[in-house]
Amino acid sequence: MNVDAPPIFGLDIGAATTVCAKDDGELLRNELGGHTTATLVAYLDDQRCLGEAAVPSLSSKPKNTVTHVGRYACLPPDASAALAPHRQFSLADDGGSVELADGRRIPVTAALGALLGKVRATSSAPAGADVALAVPPCTSPEMDAAAAEAALARARAALVDAAAVGGWAAVALPTSIEAAAAALARKWPAAPTPADGEAAPPPPRVLIIDVGAASAAAAVVSLDGSAVGFELIASAADCATGCASFDAAVWTELAAKQVKAKAGVDVVPGTKAGARLLGACERLRKLCSTLPSATTTAENIGDIDVGLALTRDELGALGAPALARLRALVDGVLGGAGDAPITGVELFGGGCRMPAVQQVVTDALEAAACAEGVRGKPFGAKLDDASVAIGAAALGKLAKEEAAAAPTGALDAAALAALVAEEAALAEGDAAAAADSATRNAYEGFVLEARGWRADRKHGSLIDGSKLEPLLDAAEEWLYSEEGEATKGAALEAKLASLREEVDGVCGGFREARAAAKAADEAALEAASAAAKAEREANGDDDDHDQRKLKFPERMKLALSNKKEGTELFQGGNYKHAAARYNKALTHACKFFDVSPQQQAEVDATKLGLHLNIAQCWLKIQEGAWVEQVVRSCKDALAIDPDCVKALYRRATALESKGDYELAKADLARAAELAPDDKAVAKLGARVDAQIKRQEQKEKKMYSKMFA
Q1: Residue 270's pLDDT is what?
Q2: Which of 451 and 702 is assigned the larger pLDDT?
Q3: Average pLDDT over residues 650-656
Q4: How many CB atoms lie within 10 A of CB 406?
Q5: Contact 342, 374 (CB under 8 A)
Q6: CB-based contacts of 694: which residues, under 8 Å, 6+ apart?
Q7: Residues 504 and 428 reside in one and the same domain
Q8: Domain containing 431 — which CATH number?
Q9: Are 35 and 128 within one domain?
């Protein structure tokens, strides 16, 4: 391999996720959100939002928000039967565009190109970087060979054009199942070298099945050890069968039998209420993948929150048509693979977590003569959400080394150049809008922060409220005025700097006193750290790296001793020192070995308490990146106990202070389910709801001024 050659990137553009990998297998996950949020592009009045930034537009302007962008770029409009009724945007009659509420038509290729451009930026790939894009399933069993070939060619051409719009150079376009096979070839154990005179064993034949968010694919591959790594023996895809098929069936059932009975309304697909119900159906389907029955809440359906319930058996019955299509798909692939025995089965994709789907595969293997050797054996787990991207990168690298001809798109040079230029202008506008948004958030955040200074128990009395409050009121009024809304760029930054200077003139004594106290605390913390280091050195310890394999009681004694010291410091108001001591206890709690189940339960309980205590310390400190510290500690606590009300409440408290009200509301809703009588949870929930309402009123006021 030429180490100086630029990397080849691999992209998996699915219905729900976007994953990028390099040719060396290094995974670069793009933080664009979870289900559907990774494939959102919103076209608002004065800006465009991509990925997670487009999530709020699903509630405010769903008609201008395109979901499942990669899917609609690669499929004919009539190939999305399960999702079609639930679209909140419109597909134009030209088959290649979406029509927005204001009449604008956006080519789906351009929308996907914008998303791919963000993927490239978040992956730190340079402009013009080589990429191999995995083509999602775009054919169905109803298509004849010619129609399937045409659909695949159309999808590949669309991806080439979208890649160019996003600043990529497409070098290979394998199907997603081919990319998965390439990744599997890298992970499958190598066959033992035969002894002299012995014949080499036949290469493994593996059945691969992918049931994704909106499609399914299956293949039998021979892992032949060639440069490609595999030979495709038989394959098939169904672009109309996936998790969306189950969600849509559950939606129809619950809308008619549960929502109608409880809310007294007929929910319509494609509306905001319909979308909220669809999200609840997705949650129920995921829960029933691990539990025999599940409950959830669909919020704001007919002005009330509706409790919903589903059992695993009901999910299987409702998904029977999709399961039948999947069975036919698997049977067809096994039937076309010949008589050579199957030696392994690999399932991946979110749909394969459903027991009903696994049962379909089990039944198909029981009926196939070539699968006798794998019947009753557990399915493999060598493929994950990143495998398609990694496999695409490997195939792209091979295509580049072999100097394969670059794939071509459908657009002519002039049309493509126009889209590229338009995307460059939009990207520049996106960057400016993002910068203005960050400045506005900083402005609003500074006002909120300054309002809280007077509550500081130690130094708040140094502030003259009669001077500060009118100043902050005027600043906030300006921010939401027509002049404030129209101010952008350098002028907005100058306004923030001026506000900081004015507030500093009123609160200078307070800020100086607090800075001095902070410096004193840090000095004391450094002194305590130095003393602790000296103590360790005196005891023969190597710095703070205690690598001794202590017996369980000895190590637990050290953990609990540090925890006790932390509690004493906390009770004395020394929150930073307490957090440091709790962290020290946590390092001891992570060094147990060869523990019994009972001991592990004790360790988990100790860790849980320490994570909660650290979160509480940072809720008291409220300096620096304290919100992130609280969220991280609560996340670690919830990893141990997903139903920990304290962790949910404390994380919600931090998120509320940051202004992430929707995330805080989600945590509080779960906490309220677990502890319905907890008054603190109810009080914080009411406050968060009020903040959300206030935010909505501000947006309404802002929009009314915009259209006045």
Answers
A1: 87
A2: 451
A3: 92
A4: 13
A5: yes
A6: none
A7: yes
A8: 1.20.1270
A9: yes
